[in-house]
Amino acid sequence: MGIVQEMIFLFLFAAFVVNLVSAQRSTYIVHMDKSFMPKVFASHQHWYSSILDSLKSTSPNFHQNPSMLLYSYENVLHGFSASLSKSELEAVKKSLGFVSAYSDKVATLDTTHSTEFLSLNPVTGIWPASEYGKDVIVGVIDTGVWPESLSYRDDGMTEIPSRWKGACDGGYDFNSSLCNKKLIGAKYFNKGVLAANPNNTKKMYSARDTEGHGTHTSSTVGGNYVEGASFFGYALGTARGVAPRARLAMYKVIFEEGRYASDVLAGMDQAIADGVDVISISMGFDLVPLYEDPIAIASFGAMEKGVTVSSSAGNAGTDLGELHNGIPWVLTVAAGSMDRWFAGSLTLGNGLTITGWSVFPARAVVRESPLIYNKTISACNSTKLLSEVSSGTVICDSSESFNNQLYYVSRSTLDAAIFISSDYTYDDSLFPYPGVVISPGEGAEVINYAVNGVNPTASMEFQRTLLGTKPAPIVAEYTSRGPSPSYPEILKPDIMAPGTLVLAAWRPNDAVSIIGPNIGLSNDFNLASGTSMACPHAAGIAALLKGAHPEWTPAAIRSAMVTTANPLDNTGTPIRDAGFSYATATPVSMGAGQVNPNSALDPGLIYDATPQDYVSILCSMNYTQKQIQTITRSSYNCSKTSSDLNYPSFIALYPNKTKNALAKKFKRIVTNVGDGAATYKVQVTAPKGSGVTVYPDTLVFGQKYDKQSYSLKIKYKANQNKTVTFGSVIWVEVNGKHIVRSPIVVAPIIPVW
Ligand SMILES: *[C@@H]1O[C@H](CO)[C@@H](O)[C@H](O)[C@H]1NC(C)=O
Ligand SMILES: *[C@@H]1O[C@H](CO)[C@@H](O)[C@H](O)[C@H]1NC(C)=O
Ligand SMILES: *[C@@H]1O[C@H](CO)[C@@H](O)[C@H](O)[C@H]1NC(C)=O
Ligand SMILES: *[C@@H]1O[C@H](CO)[C@@H](O)[C@H](O)[C@H]1NC(C)=O
Ligand SMILES: *[C@@H]1O[C@H](CO)[C@@H](O)[C@H](O)[C@H]1NC(C)=O
Ligand SMILES: *[C@@H]1O[C@H](CO)[C@@H](O)[C@H](O)[C@H]1NC(C)=O
Ligand SMILES: *[C@@H]1O[C@H](CO)[C@@H](O)[C@H](O)[C@H]1NC(C)=O
Ligand SMILES: *[C@@H]1O[C@H](CO)[C@@H](O)[C@H](O)[C@H]1NC(C)=O
């Protein structure tokens, strides 16, 4: 089991150690029913401490350990975490009010042109309507923050809202005066990681970002404007977050030594207590049922308090059902590319100029360098062979992967290299050697010139950034695919947002690029890829929606984003999927499509849901009473049981082998959030091989906030090839502008946790 921090290619990270628990004790998260607390206790913490104190008498080997109680949780769950032996745990289980306990788990980790790509602009739409997220508070649960980054400067920010209850905690290399009107809170939660690493001698802790990930995600959500930001000349421009006037509060729960559920829960618990409006969490726990998933547990409490939680789908790639955070009450975000390309231009001695992919991080001089095409070395898979040529620009064919070729070439004595590859999406920003990647067609021209030209030469220039490239977005290969193993009856992910090669702030004392085998380069900004980078885009949009519509519930905010998402790319054709040879992407890869913030501002209709609706979902699952209470905290009412949530999308699952005709019926209630009366007519596109009927086909709303219901029935069959098919149901406003679209998906059943 693991939290996954959703950034890919973090190979500069120190490896972290799992399960370094003392032989005697390990950390458990214990859920308690508050209603059983005896009146003699002044607080829950006293009650929990007394339970742990009472273990002394039951456990003969008990050694007094003042740090045994790690955290007492108040908001997102009722209970505590503690370091316990097996027999102590058994004793705790006998306490009055005990609900459930499970051992601490390890999490897996998952620029700013993206705001333009999302059509955010100062003239119309959600930026002006929300005043850029002014006074919305976003809590980021991550690796900490680099507070000196220009992205956290507070020029242009007004006074901190008086409802804010958070604080800026000082610590090692982190002065509490570093917070300001932009970065309004910074706290760290390391008791779980310390308990799991008893031999750790490091005593220096604070909310300072020792990785870079948290600085990147938080500045993506709500970083201030920074002019002249770039990645060594690439992506040059003004950096800013999606909600540039929102407030940021960092809750550091991830440390180099580990990532533990007990710390994640403590961070989310504090964020809710402090009064955040939105939580962005770019990590997830794999292979856990909802009642043991700290993010599911904590975000249920957040949802009840009206806090939207945006989470990352994970970077597990193309296998179906590997997604995490597929939690019914959160927003689950997939990742895609932008309409931006980084390039070098290659000019041959005969005048031909080709623009090829490059992120070589400097203005290297490659001028009229002898161009070499030699079949003996063109696989570029041996530094020794390459160095026999000594100088010039070598052409590398596609017989070896471009990443391997980069490795061998960057250890050679050549001037530069030209790589031939049929790939055209890239998500890695490392390019340690002067060179460009060109297509096989272009490669044939270059080889022809190299073989037949007289004294052939090549020149290159770097640091080119192309905008408006097509097609975009493309679903990233790495993004995790649904259906959700924790609750497959709801379509996950919900939406897609930019996640590939996002430019945002980073810690300046880290090597974010390299030249040759061993020259590390640092920078104040970094290009990073992963669903970790997509999640904060969606969190920023949720903050803008909250600013524009303070009364909207988390379900309403999610509904607005889902029903207005765009399934088409910038060529007007269906978005493609880099993980499936650029075939049309399905909703299990990207949800309803690319998030479209200006349309989400005014969605026309919303599919709302109450906390009780989610309880009805839990009641429909094969969970015990205690497992449900672990999520809901207090007593709950299972008088209504439903596996069908009022969700803005539809999914029907088929078992492995059945020839029988299958059918599934859904009921939905939509609320008119447009101004005044409206009539909508339905347009249905059934998934291939299925039949869909919707009743009624017209919805008439007398005024704003009127509700209407409809039913949708799908008849479908199992597919031997385990393919995913999809269509949509679209409510189109008559004589109006609103288009409310929901995907309909037919997918194979996947193993459930
Ligand atoms: C911690 O240190 C003690 C004593 O050096 C050693 O016996 C024990 O194995 C160590 N524990 C871990 C988890 O490394
Ligand atoms: C924190 O910063 C303030 C203001 O810059 C300074 O007066 C104080 O000495 C600093 N505290 C520490 C512990 O460095
Ligand atoms: C390098 O590539 C050539 C051509 O594809 C191949 O024959 C050779 O075995 C490769 N060498 C290594 C060390 O991989
Ligand atoms: C090609 O490269 C090999 C290995 O370096 C070298 O022995 C050979 O002479 C080269 N061929 C030509 C035509 O340059
Ligand atoms: C439901 O849970 C019970 C007890 O945990 C288990 O025995 C049973 O197989 C489960 N049923 C299904 C359909 O998962
Ligand atoms: C449970 O909910 C139903 C319907 O909402 C209500 O009639 C009933 O009184 C509730 N029961 C409890 C114990 O709250
Ligand atoms: C369906 O088949 C896959 C292997 O193709 C297997 O892993 C899975 O358990 C099967 N599911 C069911 C519900 O039988
Ligand atoms: C399944 O795949 C096979 C081979 O790719 C293809 O011939 C067949 O038409 C597919 N069947 C369905 C139902 O898609």
UniProtKB/TrEMBL annotation:
<dbReference type="Pfam" id="PF17766">
    <property type="entry name" value="fn3_6"/>
</dbReference>
<dbReference type="GO" id="GO:0005576">
    <property type="term" value="C:extracellular region"/>
</dbReference>
<feature type="domain" description="Inhibitor I9">
    <location>
        <begin position="27"/>
        <end position="109"/>
    </location>
</feature>
<dbReference type="InterPro" id="IPR034197">
    <property type="entry name" value="Peptidases_S8_3"/>
</dbReference>
<feature type="active site" description="Charge relay system">
    <location>
        <position position="142"/>
    </location>
</feature>
<feature type="active site" description="Charge relay system">
    <location>
        <position position="213"/>
    </location>
</feature>
<feature type="signal peptide">
    <location>
        <begin position="1"/>
        <end position="23"/>
    </location>
</feature>
<feature type="domain" description="Subtilisin-like protease fibronectin type-III">
    <location>
        <begin position="644"/>
        <end position="746"/>
    </location>
</feature>
<dbReference type="InterPro" id="IPR023828">
    <property type="entry name" value="Peptidase_S8_Ser-AS"/>
</dbReference>
<keyword id="KW-0732">Signal</keyword>
<protein>
    <submittedName>
        <fullName>Subtilisin-like protease SBT3</fullName>
    </submittedName>
</protein>
<keyword id="KW-0378">Hydrolase</keyword>
<keyword id="KW-0720">Serine protease</keyword>
<dbReference type="InterPro" id="IPR036852">
    <property type="entry name" value="Peptidase_S8/S53_dom_sf"/>
</dbReference>
<dbReference type="InterPro" id="IPR015500">
    <property type="entry name" value="Peptidase_S8_subtilisin-rel"/>
</dbReference>
<feature type="active site" description="Charge relay system">
    <location>
        <position position="532"/>
    </location>
</feature>
<dbReference type="GO" id="GO:0006508">
    <property type="term" value="P:proteolysis"/>
</dbReference>
<dbReference type="InterPro" id="IPR037045">
    <property type="entry name" value="S8pro/Inhibitor_I9_sf"/>
</dbReference>
<dbReference type="GO" id="GO:0004252">
    <property type="term" value="F:serine-type endopeptidase activity"/>
</dbReference>
<dbReference type="InterPro" id="IPR045051">
    <property type="entry name" value="SBT"/>
</dbReference>
<dbReference type="Pfam" id="PF05922">
    <property type="entry name" value="Inhibitor_I9"/>
</dbReference>
<dbReference type="InterPro" id="IPR000209">
    <property type="entry name" value="Peptidase_S8/S53_dom"/>
</dbReference>
<dbReference type="Pfam" id="PF00082">
    <property type="entry name" value="Peptidase_S8"/>
</dbReference>
<comment type="similarity">
    <text>Belongs to the peptidase S8 family.</text>
</comment>
<dbReference type="InterPro" id="IPR010259">
    <property type="entry name" value="S8pro/Inhibitor_I9"/>
</dbReference>
<feature type="domain" description="Peptidase S8/S53">
    <location>
        <begin position="133"/>
        <end position="569"/>
    </location>
</feature>
<dbReference type="InterPro" id="IPR041469">
    <property type="entry name" value="Subtilisin-like_FN3"/>
</dbReference>
<keyword id="KW-0645">Protease</keyword>
